[in-house]
Amino acid sequence: MLGIALKDELVTILQEEHPNTYQWLAQESDEVHICRGHGKLFVIHDCKWPLIGSNPQKDAFYEVLDNQECHNYLIVEACHDYDENDIGGWYDNPWNLSKYVTVNLSSKYVTVNLSYEGDNLP
């Protein structure tokens, strides 16, 4: 699952200056949640989202993000294999979009529990 939170000003830039990129993002999304006065949260289910090189539309989207302040967006990927593809810095978003990871290792000899949220590595 992937969550893409964009502040209103970034949504407007996409809609007005990059309409094909915005249309692609809207079509790729399974859900779109609007928080008036703040922004939009696009949710994509069942997706593996490599950062660049996998799709020209996605690359165009990242080119737009490269020219924006990181506090205007947050992209969080939750998938079965752990990776750090999350980018952006809009941590006080109205949907409380963030990543919380728990890893359990256990055997008959030892059990280890590791958890972290966002950028707070143990």
Protein traits:
two-stranded antiparallel ribbon; 122 residues; globular; alpha+beta
Describe this entry's structure for a reader.
This protein has one domain. 25% of the residues lie in helices and 31% in strands. The protein has three helices and seven strands, in the order βααββαββββ. The strands form two sheets. Strands 2-3-1-4-5 form a five-stranded antiparallel β-sheet. A two-stranded antiparallel sheet has the order 6-7. The longest helix is centred in the middle third of the chain and has 11 residues. The protein is globular.
Task: Write a compact overview of the structure shown.
The protein is of the alpha+beta class. The chain is built from three helices and seven strands.
User: Based on CA inertia axes, which overall geometry fits?
Assistant: globular
Q: Cα-atom Rg, whole angstroms?
A: 16 Å
Distance between the termini: 24 Å
Secondary-structure element sequence? EHHEEHEEEE
Whole-number count of domains = 1
**Main β sheet profile:** 5 strands, antiparallel
Overall residue-averaged pLDDT value: 79
Order of strands in the sheet with most strands: 2-3-1-4-5
